[in-house]
Amino acid sequence: MGSTTGPKANGGIPKTMKALQYSKPKDFAVVEIDVPSIGEEDVLVKIEACGVCGTDLHYHKGEFMAKYPLIPGHEAVGTVVAVGRNVKSIAVGQRIAADPMEPCRNCFYCIRGQTLLCENMTGYGGNVPGGFAEYCRYPARHVTAIGDLPALEAVLIEPAACATHGIERMAPKVGSTVLLFGCGPTGMLLAQLLKLNGTANLTIASKPGPKLDLAKRLNLADSFIAISDTNAKEDLDALLKSNPHGFDIVVEATGAPSVLEQSIFYVRKGGTLVVYGVYDDAAKIAWPPMRIWTYEITILSSFCSTLKFPVVMEYVRTKKIDFRGIVTKTYRIEEWAECLEALEKQRFVKAAIVFD
After folding, report:
1. Cα–Cα distance measured from residue 260 to residue 208, given in angstroms and rounded to the nearest whole number
2. Nearest 5°: phi and psi at 31?
3. Does the structure show a pLDDT above 50 at 3?
4. Alpha carbons 141 and 40: distance in angstroms, whole number
5. Which pairs with CB-CB distance under 8 Å and at least 24 residues apart come from 330-339?
6. What is the 3 state secondary structure string of 73-139?
7. Alpha carbons 74 and 132: distance in angstroms, whole number
8. What is the pTM assigned to this prediction?
9. Distant-in-sequence, close-in-space partners of 228: CB < 8 Å, separation ≥ 6
């Protein structure tokens, strides 16, 4: 096992493992490959579960940072089964969640402290093997102990970390009114954090269905607006009529370019529009510059996160953020085609790949 040594290595580790692997965009299979070796600063993790994310659809199509052959999975949790010679922060047997974004720490942005903008970012489940496999290697500094947090809750630590970065980017003022378009899993986590960080009045606008129903059951917002496919214009007009001055902050978290394009008309003067969703590479939108100028609208984006897992765990330990009930479906890697179809058709709130 690479640089593992004596008592730090688990003798029960097999030589090979099953993994879901892409050879090129849209071409995947379950394969048997070698269990990863690890370096002196790494850990080997036996994967319990790995969340399925909309970003996985982009990797499926060859977008974002996809590099082939590719083992997807960037929301992984599991148990440490081996550690490198120099690892002191985590021990064999501990359950962890893995932060998938590893900056190079040497590029133009990294040396200026902007590690999330790294020019040479390593993305586990993107351009190096990720958590849709029985085992995965991670740098020890990128894993966070999760104790006895159930795996199907712990897979939400990564999207919650992205949400914490989003909160830092938008920096809501105390007493803010916020409109959140979309209540997928990330939107649900963002809603909880918004209410903990300055938001006095939160409105969620989303298509009707299981996600909006769950958001209501979890009481994630002060008001909920169902935007139907058949009467979307009427529903959105009613939303604007009931909020004639718009909102301090509007967050677009659906990943739909058409929604993003319309979102700017719900931002009040002096307000902020947050581009939070993940869009197809080819997507383009049009905004009226005069509206942005005369309203002095700030437009900002929030791109994933790195090294925010300990922050999320503080919210978890103090029971201020709730992951329960968000994962509603599980699959094996052999069922990936079925999972992909369900993801595209939004048949579940959140899914996870699980292992024995």
Report:
1. 18
2. -125, 160
3. no
4. 12
5. 330/49, 330/152, 330/354, 331/52, 333/18, 333/19, 333/20, 333/30, 333/132, 333/133, 334/30, 336/20, 336/28, 336/30, 336/132, 339/52
6. CCCEEEEEEEEECCCCCCCCCCEEEECCEECCCCCCCHHHCCHHHCCCCEEECCCECCCCECEEEEE
7. 8
8. 0.93
9. 207, 208, 235
Assigned CATH for 160-301: 3.40.50.720
The tokens of 4 are what? 């593992």
| Structure tokens, 345 | 């058709």
* Residue 44 CB neighbour total at 10 angstroms: 26
Q: How does residue 1 score in pLDDT terms, banded at 50, 70 and 90? A: very low
Distance, in Å, from the CA atom of 96 to the CA atom of 86, rounded to the nearest integer, reads 18
Give the number of other CB atoms < 10 A from CB of residue 251.
Answer: 27
Structure confidence by residue, pLDDT tens digits, 151-201: 999 999 999 999 999 999 999 999 999 999 999 999 999 999 999 999 999
CA dist list (Å): 110 to 113, 165, 168, 182, 303: 5, 17, 18, 32, 15
* pLDDT at position 249: 98
CATH classification for the domain delimited by 4-155+327-354, as one of 3.40.50.720, 3.90.180.10, 3.30.70.1350, 3.30.420.360: 3.90.180.10
Domain ranges of the chain: 4-155+327-354, 160-301
- Contact yes or no for 234/338 (Cβ under 8 A): no
Q: What percent of the chain has pLDDT over 70?
A: 97
The neighbouring-strand residues paired with 108 are: none
Structure confidence at residue 64 (pLDDT): 82
Amino acid identity of 333? I
